[in-house]
Amino acid sequence: MLHSQTACEDFADHFRSKVNAIRSNLQPVHDSNPSRSVALSLPEETLESFVLVDAEMLGRVFSQANTTTCLLDPIPTSLFKTFYTFFESEILNIVNCSLQTGVFPSACKTAVVRPLLKKSNLDPKIMDNYRSVSNLPFLGKIIEKLVFIQLHDFFNEHNVLEKCQSGFRTNHSTETALLKILNDLRNTYDSQKLSVLVLLDLSAAFDTVDHQILLDRLSSRVGLSGTALNWFHSYLTDRHFFVSMDTRSSGVHEISCGVPQGSILGPILFNLYMLPLGDVIRRHGVDFHSYADDTQLYIAVSPDDLEPVNTLLNCILDIKLWMAENFLQLNQDKIEVLIIGPEDKREMILPKLRNFKSSQCVRNLGVLFDSELNFIPHIRNVVKTRFYHLKNIAIVRPFLSLASTEVLMHAFIFSRLDYYNALLSGLPKKSISNLQLLQNSAARVLTRTRGREHITPVLKSLHWLPVCFRIDFKVLLMVNKCPNVGRPTAAPRPPSKVIYRNQL
């Protein structure tokens, strides 16, 4: 029954009702308090129309596009790309017609949605355990990418985007976002103050975006007008979806809100939708950083002056009001708080934050932050999970070639070993010794080296940098990108005498 047509209809109704329930529970309050109003920042420059593309630009975008095929595509994407030259002129006409008239093709507005179990250990009979995964027609993504390129140039030239917003932007990754936050928190720690870090949680934020509010924001805040604005109106409206599982499908249903899931433009449109939030937070003097729909607030607190905590609480209240007005639901019960500093001083702040979930370790964009900023819980978690995979690789190692085993090592071990490792810069070698032990074990499994043999020559023969040098190498790469490629625009606080403390 799970893959029957009835099940498809049930999933379609479930996904729709989930979004409708969130929006119906929100009661926008139009507060007359001037302190809560967002000052309108009118754009100095406007984008009235898109530039028509030539065959060279279209071919470049086409060749770089992923080969993901949608159920609605007439032919497989890989085949389409192979014989692209035969359709080049027709595709170019479709693309330029869309850009010139401000109309997005209706055939590209229908999404194929597949339910995906959030975790393998969840009950597959409970619909709340599924997330919707959307797939869109390939040609529509090509048009989106060409529009995105022109938007990206316009945004960079006129500094449209929020400087403290990362995600879906060049040189604004999760790692650079966390490095900025970590630098601020460590500077506060070095100045003998406490930091309060608050992680906000939203419910289905991308799916509840109000189209009219977004279009108004594109016009009044971003500077889109004329054909360009009409194109986005056409792009957002009259969209539909259906649920597909195996050979069964539901009926087609209308989408009345949200940015298109699985699209090229959806994430950047959400960033634009969230632009006024930065003004709301700055009014309170609270530091913040956002990555997509993950927003985190942090503020420095002196043990003898807890007034900044009240400021932070008022900021959260205003954020909740602003989000309600913009059809975004802030989950009060899932807000996480981390107090960073000496344990005896942390106890002084806890009573003021009793309405929030406070712990000594929180997961922040995939990294475990702890109250001492020593990353011991994060390192312990990485070592535990990677040794599990290494054990499985060791079982099948006798049946694999050296090259195949090395591919597995990079996929299951080093992908996590190097993940966010720039955050570990400056930690004592003792703190990262277990990570080095993990790498040594991986090298022994790969080369079948015995435990009594020295590992240094093995690492050298594999051209594997030791963990401490991998961390330094990542930092050097990021520093090298600053003058040559460009750095994130989020301005850090003035650094203390050392950015990272050698001893925590």
Automatic annotation (TrEMBL):
PROSITE patterns: RT_POL. Residues 97-369 form the Reverse transcriptase domain. It comes from the Eukaryota. SUPFAM superfamilies: DNA/RNA polymerases. CDD domains: RT_nLTR_like (cd01650). This is Reverse transcriptase domain-containing protein. InterPro entries: DNA/RNA_pol_sf, RT_dom.
